[in-house]
Amino acid sequence: MSGTPSSTWYVDFFTELPNEFWRRAVPPEVTVEEIDFVEERLGLAPRSLVLDVPCGSGRHSLELARRGHRVTGVDLSAEAIGHARRAAAGLDVDFVRADMREIPRDNGFDAVVCLGNSFGYFELDGLREFAAALGGAVRPGGGLVVDFASAAESVLPGYRAEPRTMRTGDITVLATGEYDVAGSRLLSRYRFSRGEEELDVTAIHHVYTVAQIVDLLSGNGFGDIELFGGPDGGPYGIGSGRLLLTARRTS
């Protein structure tokens, strides 16, 4: 398996094989449930202008566009953006290849969604920059949804690193992990296999407390922050598998 990656591991990680695995791994009904949550919790009006960042292969952007919203999806992976553009025929959605910190800061969007556990990709300075970009993207009164499975309150209670094997179609993934105490980060090592093809890659998810996340967002104009443990609207608490945070641009 690959060793510890650089802090910019995400630049080269999301090539065709990992992307195709995750495209297959998430059932369509999961995407529908997540976008139901976004629409209901943010009270999205018809034809809202929505930014999806990072958008990956576009599953959330495409679902939002199918519901009549005007969507911009931003992602750094050329392969993912290419796939999303091919899937978007006839929909009001624009896919842009860019770093997630390079989103427009003209307060032009009715809502921004950051789904799929990408909020922890950056070290603290990078996360501060991303939080500032989010604050600059959303109009006053507009909404934000952050999906984060690496909050300390989720990860640390009862943490155990056990190998997992996952399969979807002809793709098999062996996943192993460890918690880097000194760096407060999760190191996830993956071996993707498809026929004779094999790829070893490592991802980093930086672990932040809920208080840190709330502080970063509050400092960039967001208020009315609420915490949920999933798209069913249940409360977030110690040991919840994921954090779904909603906020409103108040200043």
UniProtKB/TrEMBL annotation:
<keyword id="KW-0489">Methyltransferase</keyword>
<dbReference type="InterPro" id="IPR029063">
    <property type="entry name" value="SAM-dependent_MTases_sf"/>
</dbReference>
<protein>
    <submittedName>
        <fullName>Class I SAM-dependent methyltransferase</fullName>
        <ecNumber>2.1.1.222</ecNumber>
        <ecNumber>2.1.1.64</ecNumber>
    </submittedName>
</protein>
<dbReference type="GO" id="GO:0032259">
    <property type="term" value="P:methylation"/>
</dbReference>
<keyword id="KW-0808">Transferase</keyword>
<feature type="domain" description="Methyltransferase">
    <location>
        <begin position="50"/>
        <end position="142"/>
    </location>
</feature>
<dbReference type="InterPro" id="IPR041698">
    <property type="entry name" value="Methyltransf_25"/>
</dbReference>
<dbReference type="GO" id="GO:0061542">
    <property type="term" value="F:3-demethylubiquinol 3-O-methyltransferase activity"/>
</dbReference>
<dbReference type="Pfam" id="PF13649">
    <property type="entry name" value="Methyltransf_25"/>
</dbReference>
<dbReference type="GO" id="GO:0102208">
    <property type="term" value="F:2-polyprenyl-6-hydroxyphenol methylase activity"/>
</dbReference>
<keyword id="KW-0949">S-adenosyl-L-methionine</keyword>
